[in-house]
Amino acid sequence: MPSTFHSIETAKRSLFTQTAALNTTGHNIANANTEGYTRQTVKMRASIPMEAYGINRSNVPGQLGTGVEFDAIERIREKFLDSQYRGENTELGSWTIRSNTLDKLQQIMNEPSDTGIRKVLDNFYKSWSDLSKDPESVTARTIVKENALALTDAMNHMSKQLSNLSADLTSNVEAKSSELQSYVNSIADLNQSITKIEGLGDNANDLRDQRDLIVDKISKIVNVTVTDTDQGYNVNMGGQALVTGFAPTTGINGAFLQAAFASNDLQGGEVHGMIISRDQFVADYTAQMDNLADTLANGDISVTLPKGSVLPEGTVLNGVTYTGTNRTLQSDLTVTVKGLNGLHQLGYTQEEKDANGNMVAGKPFFVASNNGGTITAGNITLNTAIVDNPNAIAASLRVTGTAPTEELVKGNNTLASLMSNLKLNNFTSVSTGNKATIDSFFSSMVGQLGIEAQEATRQTQNSTALVSQVETMRQSVSGVSLDEEMSNMIKFQHAYSAAARFMTTFDQLLDKLINSTGVVGR
Fold first, then answer.
1. Handedness of CA 498, 501, 503, 506 (dihedral sign)
2. 460 and 92 in contact (C-beta within 8 Å)?
């Protein structure tokens, strides 16, 4: 049998439940713009009825209900969409970094333009052509010197920019490792807090939101997989554990992430993009620029020396040593020399003789600034002898007389002409053995960079679209709709008002029963 106050208790439960629903609606509305917030809902259910089935149950027909109650406040979230989002976010993080790095490399190359390496090379070759028109001109020699310095400065500057970019990427890996360590520590702390709260029977919804948001942020930095356990999230990067229950992995730094990349545990995210950018893109273009500089100075080239040219004493070409009277070529001679340096050493400087009275041969035109090391884009420089005295530039391949009265044919421009024509000569790459002009080597590098940058941009755009699509789907499930919440608020408000009216009605009935019965005849 129901008690006299049964309906009052039913109304009370309804008031409590609708109040909880209104409070939750207000919480949703307040956090409509909070990053990572998940819409919450009150799980209502009919409370246990008056009497269960049994031998001693009342004979009154019907199982009388006792109203409504709520057993939980839950988040509306889809784990599958979370997993999808994190996977796409990881790809986006990697491609975004790669695209940004390639954009910076394009700015460093600065091609096509009127101020890039190609323009400086053109000016260098043109200055040799001008010198060939007036080989005795000090002004023309000075212009050759200045254009050579401009070329080496441009290569040095580009090499320094590439080195700085590599160092920046290394610094960014360290910065991201610190950020990752902070996130990992936070997840371990949240695991502990959530476990304590939910051990009391409540859902730690807001703390779970914070934890999921941190995992989302980690997915932008590195690839992650998440397993929900009794002690909270276990977060892994490939086969490398980042968080195991309450225990975070410590010592996350650049070396840790580099090792994870080497072991293939690190397969995506911003750090992956940084390491790819540094160790592949920047390193590759640095090596290509170094090869370009060394090939220009020392790469094998085939040139034809005209009949009548006089080679410097002791010159060795094609296995033949030229000395004494056989220094003068009796016919055109096609030879292979070691780049611009080798060709320059076949000519003669202005009015300078050795101790035996022979005209002095040209010195190596380009040298390494680190005193004889391999020439790279970073250390290539003009020979100091030429910097100090432009007359050390060799332009002539002719002399008259013999030592000690040997004299330079000053008006001869044979070597200067050969130098100016190197623009069209094929050089043999020092590092690869491929043959092409210096312009072609550089154009190939610029073309490769353009294609790689285009592909990275395309992949970034595709990843951005996929992340946006998955996030839209996720928000359609978990996001707060103010229109829907306002509708719910009105619904819960009316339910609360009706429950209150229901309680008032029974209060009046009880008042009648208690205060107005048994008073007939008074």
1. negative
2. yes
Coil/strand/helix, residue 11: helix
The Cα 430–Cα 375 span in angstroms is 11
- In the chain the first and final C-alpha atoms are separated, in Å, by 32
- CA nearest 165: which of 285, 30, 265? 285
* 404: preceding bond cis by omega (within 30 degrees): yes
Q: How many CA atoms lie within 13 A of 472 on its CB side?
A: 6
CB of 131 closer than 8 Å to CB of 140: yes
Cα→Cα distances 358→292, 365, 404, Å: 34, 20, 6
Amino acid identity for residue 193 in this structure: S
C-alpha span between 344 and 338 (Å, rounded): 10
Cβ atoms 58, 188 nearer than 8 A = no
3-state secondary structure of 439: helix
Asked whether 261 and 274 are in contact (CB, 8 A), the reply is: no
Rounded Cα distance, 490 and 344, in Å: 91
User: What's the pLDDT tens digit per position in 83-129?
Assistant: 999 999 999 999 999 999 999 999 999 888 888 899 999 999 999 99
Give the tens place of pLDDT for each residue, 255-309. 999 999 999 999 999 999 999 999 999 999 999 999 999 999 999 999 999 998 9
Are 430 and 366 contacting, i.e. CB atoms less than 8 angstroms apart?
Answer: no
For 158, the 3-state DSSP assignment is helix
Within 10 Å of residue 323's Cβ, how many Cβ atoms? Answer: 13
Distance CA 218, CA 82 (A): 13
393: nearest Cα among 420, 415, 367, 375: 415
Predicted TM-score (pTM) above 0.85: yes
Question: Residue 205, exposed/middle/buried by CB under 10 A (0-12, 13-18, 19+)?
Answer: buried
Q: Report residue 50 as tokens.
A: 């008056």
| DSSP symbol at 310 | B
Task: Show Cβ contacts of residue 50 under 8 Å, excluding neighbours closer than 6 positions.
Answer: 2, 6, 63, 64, 65, 66
Measured between alpha carbons, how far is residue 406 from residues 321, 353, 355, 403 in Å? 19, 9, 12, 5
DSSP 176: H
Do 293 and 124 form a contact (C-beta atoms < 8 A)? no
Q: What DSSP string runs through 330-378?
A: SS-EEEEEEHHHHHHTTSEEEEEE-TTSPEEEPPPSEEETTTSS---TT
Query: Over the stretch 437-480, which tens digit does the pLDDT of each residue have?
Result: 999 999 999 999 999 999 999 999 999 999 999 999 999 999 99
In angstroms, what CA-CA distances link 485 with 45, 249, 495? 20, 41, 15
Reference 418, options 342, 325, 512, 356; nearest CA is 342
